[in-house]
UniProtKB/TrEMBL annotation:
Record Gene3D superfamilies: Tubulin/FtsZ, GTPase domain (3.40.50.1440)
Transmembrane segments: none
InterPro entries: Tubulin/FtsZ_GTPase_sf (IPR036525), Tubulin_FtsZ_GTPase (IPR003008)
Family matches, as Pfam families: Tubulin
Domain Tubulin/FtsZ GTPase: 12-189
Gene Ontology terms for molecular function: GTP binding
Listed name of the protein: Tubulin/FtsZ GTPase domain-containing protein
Length: 409
């Protein structure tokens, strides 16, 4: 088998308008290492799905065919025409059309090794459907009725990227976000759900951005860049870090939630690697105390010419990573990797994946809203067609508390 055939094949599954908005920006890239065009955007509302297709056309170019994009990259599911900003309705729509969703994924994404699921956690569609679909895939699709699951799907690794709502948004979005985080982390029976849960917070990311590209573009661009750095580390044979590395030890530690921390375009001819890692650590995607990190991965991407000339090497990256963790008093499980990029020059990019950290700084922005709405929404259908029972909500709280307590600072 040729080396190019051994690379991990990723597919992106985005649900809801927010998830679709993020996924559409993958098409801005001339090259998506490991992903290519294996991207599916899903929605329960056809008009929202059309909005996503319009964005895809903008990113791909005016010559793209709308119906072809709908057939190859989009899927409308469920009969409710929207989830009404209530996550149980999004889950119910996914259950209703599970066979068609699975069939479409098998048709478009054959041979995938890992899925990157994307959803904004404040809404109802993606936040309701994505945790449910991951649970189904990992447990052999028990709710599927007529679809035959192909062998390759049984070994797929599931990573998820959940985006926290703006801190000023309405309380129901924060209720959804807390429930969505719990459901991405754990299933109804308390077992692990996604193999890796990546988190970003809109308000935190917007505060760190100063490029003036608009409310969502810069935030979503940062998310795409982090995903590409993470996936790109598994594309080369130099000290490869790949998805199995990201999920194995953190899952054993019950510390499999992560946030990216990124610094790009750093002049490698001037700055020391430890300084670059520190710059990245100051740009986490959620509010957090770096010193509560329990698992960490460092990916340094440098021009191939710098690597070939010996200006930067794998031992250099390992040493800098060890010095950086020591300087913060962090005793972490993790690895470091050096990844080449095309082109000359000396611009170096750094990604830190920080895992198992104290989630309280993030949850503090939403917990009061969650508790305020919990009593009124439990036992109701949120104005839709699907109930959220008290027992289901109690389990969501229990799962989150049992996961977060060992990861508290």
């Amino acid at each position: 088998m040729a080396a190019s055939d051994t690379f991990t094949r990723w597919s992106v599954i985005a649900s809801g308008e927010g998830g679709g908005r993020i996924a559409s920006q993958f098409f801005d890239r001339a090259e998506n290492p490991g992903i290519d065009e294996r991207i599916l955007v899903m929605n329960t509302n056809r008009s929202d799905l059309r909005n996503t297709i319009d964005r895809l056309q903008e990113h791909i170019g005016s010559g793209s065919d709308e119906e072809q994009l709908m057939n190859t990259h989009a899927l409308e599911f469920g009969s409710q025409q929207g989830a009404g900003n209530f996550f149980p309705n999004g889950e119910a729509c996914a259950l209703e059309d599970l066979d068609r969703i699975v069939g479409d994924i098998q048709d478009q994404m054959s041979g995938t090794d890992a899925f990157m699921h994307i959803a904004t956690l404040g809404g109802g569609t993606g936040n309701g459907s994505i945790p449910y679909l991951i649970d189904q895939f990992k447990n052999g699709l028990p709710d599927a009725q007529s679809v035959d699951v192909e062998d390759w799907m049984e070994s797929v690794i599931h990573a998820a990227f959940g985006v926290w709502p703006y801190y000023y948004e309405q309380p129901q979005r924060h209720f959804n976000a807390v429930c969505g985080l719990s459901r991405l982390l754990r299933t109804e029976d308390g077992t692990q759900n996604a193999g890796m849960v990546l988190l970003g917070a809109n308000s935190h990311l917007e505060a760190a951005s100063d490029d003036g590209n608009g409310q969502y573009d810069s935030i979503n661009g940062a998310i795409i860049e982090a995903v590409e750095l993470m996936i790109g580390a598994g594309r080369e044979t130099r000290s490869v870090i790949d998805i199995k590395d990201y999920v194995t030890i953190p899952s054993q530690m019950d510390a499999y939630h992560f946030t990216p921390a990124v610094a790009t375009d750093l002049d490698g001819s001037i700055f020391e690697l430890e300084y670059m890692l520190e710059q990245a650590a100051e740009n986490t995607f959620v509010p957090m105390d770096v010193e509560t990190t329990r698992a960490a991965y460092a990916i340094v991407r440098a021009p191939e010419s710098m690597i070939d000339n010996g200006e930067i090497s794998e031992p250099d990256v390992y040493d800098a990573f060890r010095d950086w963790t020591d300087s913060h008093g962090i005793n972490v499980a993790g690895q470091a990797s050096l990844t080449p990029k095309r082109g000359k020059g000396s611009d170096v990019d750094v990604l830190l994946l920080l895992g198992g950290f104290d989630l309280d700084p993030l949850l503090d922005h939403s917990w009061d809203d969650f508790e305020m709405l919990g009593e009124s929404l439990a036992g109701s259908n949120g104005g839709g067609e699907t109930d959220l029972t008290h027992a289901e909500l109690d389990q969501i709280v229990t799962n989150l508390e049992e996961y977060t307590d060992p990861n508290a600072g």
